[in-house]
Write a structure and sequence with these properties.
Elements lengths: L4 H7 L1 H12 L18 H16 L3 E5 L3 E6 L5 E7 L17 E3 L2 E3 L7 H16 L7 E7 L7 H9 L5 E4 L2 E2 L3 E4 L1 E9 L8 E7 L5 E2 L2 E7 L3 H14 L3 E7 L2 E7 L3 E2 L9 H9 L6 H11 L16 E2 L3 E2 L1 E10 L3 E10 L5 H15 L2 E8 L2 E2 L5 H14 L7 E3 L11 E3 L2 E2 L13 E3 H19 L5
Parallel strand pairs: 3-6, 3-7, 7-24, 8-25, 9-23
Antiparallel strand pairs: 1-2, 2-6, 4-5, 5-26, 9-22, 10-20, 10-21, 11-13, 11-19, 12-16, 13-15, 14-15, 17-18, 19-20
Helix pairs in contact: 1-11, 2-4, 4-11, 7-8, 10-11
The structure holds zinc ion (ZN).
The site of zinc ion has 5 residues, from loops.
Organism: Secundilactobacillus kimchicus JCM 15530
Keywords: Dipeptidase, Hydrolase, Metal-binding, Metalloprotease, Protease, Zinc
GO molecular function, one term: dipeptidase activity
Length: 470
């Protein structure tokens, strides 16, 4: 059946935005402090999953909820299964929004709100692609499963639960990244340097705090310090702010000097897109006379770990021709005097280098500073051949509907759900011409981008699961 996809997507605009508004309003940030048996990741993610599945039931689909951790919408019949993997959880909103992050706001043709770009907007666009096929009565000769996870931004608990309890799909895509298409993703591994809390210098670091998540460049950093000459410290801080690409503020009270640095948040897979408030604050403080664990903590952050996303200072710089550079994000920094703290580093690595290489270099750093080192979760690099039908079919649809004939699949710093299937790729919904605001304040997507994505997704599902694909 021939469908004028762009026209049909435009016809669904109002319904789509109404449903998106409903989803954005649910604060589906993982919240372990408030988890229950029914909501293992806190109330928000479970509520967003239920809301999405309820919409699909309203639209006449069969749905399944897997223990409030994952769920799926099913349509079509066939021996093979096409999977679409999206997620309903969102990153914490963070400070500094111009609009309420949990109220969908349309301004100058853009849809603002946490999740408009990552991933509620794209997830819903893909869902609407499937819904349009159903509404038009298109018969699919493969089974399509639209699968929702609830923990993409942390540990993938939801999607892992799906893959532990359900058969592996034949192939699929995840609308949780960018267009045109990602057929390769770097490996992803985190390391935590554990720090003890002793101060042994003339100056004293009472507390230091930066970063919400390992996969995010910290926008804000705060420290409380006590020095022999607090006035000189404040003057030096003001001068530092003048010279550096960060802003901040400072106040002094009975606890000491409270310093606050504001940089720029960004997704941790490309730290160059952000300005790390934490390492800048450490760089400033490391010129003073802090000693012991506090001194090591500041010297490392402000020195070897500062402004070095390609890890040259630790001697690890590495590039693969297809998959690109090894990158490092200093995502979480925490120090409490007398108690201790940690530095969490997130690495994205191409094929050709492994987490063992990283661990070797970091072990040395840990030994030199009397830190302890712990390896976190790891995902190895993922690559689907460019001539696999999942790649060629989606690329053909993308070129057809955008007119971008020269578009080619690409490799990124990853961590998308695409890697959960051998023949899995990431596909949209951020267009090359649109600013990437995922994980940032004032996250948005142009409404027209979301509608074009809807058309591309619908056409792609049709091509993958209909006779058109053969
Ligand atoms: Zn996402």
């Amino acid at each position: 059946m021939s469908i004028d996809w762009k026209k049909v997507a435009a016809d669904y605009r109002d319904d789509y935005l109404e449903d998106l508004k409903h989803l954005i309003a649910i604060q589906s940030v993982r919240d372990d402090a408030n988890k229950t048996e029914d909501a293992p990741l806190g109330p928000g993610p479970a509520k967003a999953l239920q809301a999405f599945l309820k919409m699909a039931e309203r639209d006449g689909f069969e749905t399944t909820n897997l223990d409030n951790l994952a769920g799926f919408v099913e349509y079509g019949e066939g021996a093979e299964t096409i999977a679409i993997l999206a997620h309903v959880d969102v990153m914490p909103a963070g400070e500094g929004w111009a609009t309420d992050p949990f109220t969908l706001t349309i301004k100058d043709g853009n849809a603002y709100g946490r999740g408009t770009s990552d991933d509620k907007g794209p997830a819903l666009a893909a869902y609407y692609g499937l819904k349009i096929l159903k509404d038009q009565g298109v018969k699919l000769n493969k089974k399509v499963r639209f699968i929702l996870g609830t923990d993409e931004e942390s540990n993938w608990t939801g999607m892992n639960h799906y893959f532990e309890t359900q058969p592996e799909p034949t192939m699929g895509f995840s609308p949780d990244a960018e267009f045109p298409l990602i057929n390769g993703e770097k490996g992803n591994v985190s390391f935590t340097l554990g720090v003890k809390g002793e101060n042994a210098g003339d100056d004293s670091l009472k507390g230091f705090d930066a970063g919400l998540r390992e996969n995010m460049v910290p926008r804000d950093a705060t420290a409380i310090v006590e020095t022999a000459d607090n006035e000189a410290l404040v003057a030096a801080f003001t001068e530092f702010l003048d010279q550096m690409p960060v802003v901040g503020d400072v106040k002094t009270d009975g606890d000491g000097v409270h310093l606050h640095v504001i940089g720029k948040a960004a997704h941790g897979m490309e730290p160059k897109n952000g300005i790390n408030a934490g390492t800048y604050l450490a760089k400033f403080l490391s010129q003073f006379n802090f000693g012991g664990d506090a001194g090591h903590f500041l010297a490392l952050l402000g020195g070897a770990l500062h402004d070095d996303s390609r890890v040259t200072k630790l001697g690890l710089a590495f590039t693969d021709d297809i998959m690109g550079d090894l990158t490092m994000n200093v995502g979480v920094m925490d120090f409490q005097a007398g108690q201790g703290g940690k530095i969490v580093l997130n690495f994205r690595y191409p094929k050709g280098i492994g987490s063992d290489d990283l661990q070797g270099a970091l072990t040395k750093v840990a030994e030199e500073n009397q830190f302890d080192l712990q390896k976190g979760r790891e995902m190895v690099p993922h690559y689907v051949a460019p001539d696999d039908p999942i790649v060629t079919t989606l690329m053909a649809t993308y070129r057809e509907l955008t007119g971008e004939q020269a578009a080619e699949p690409e490799v990124v710093g990853g961590g998308t759900y695409g890697r959960l299937m051998k023949r899995g790729v990431a596909f949209g919904a951020l267009f090359p011409h649109t600013e990437d605001t995922m994980h940032q304040v004032d996250e948005f997507q142009p409404v027209n981008d979301l509608l074009l994505a809807m058309a591309i997704y619908g056409r792609s599902i049709q091509a993958l699961s209909n006779d058109l694909a053969d």
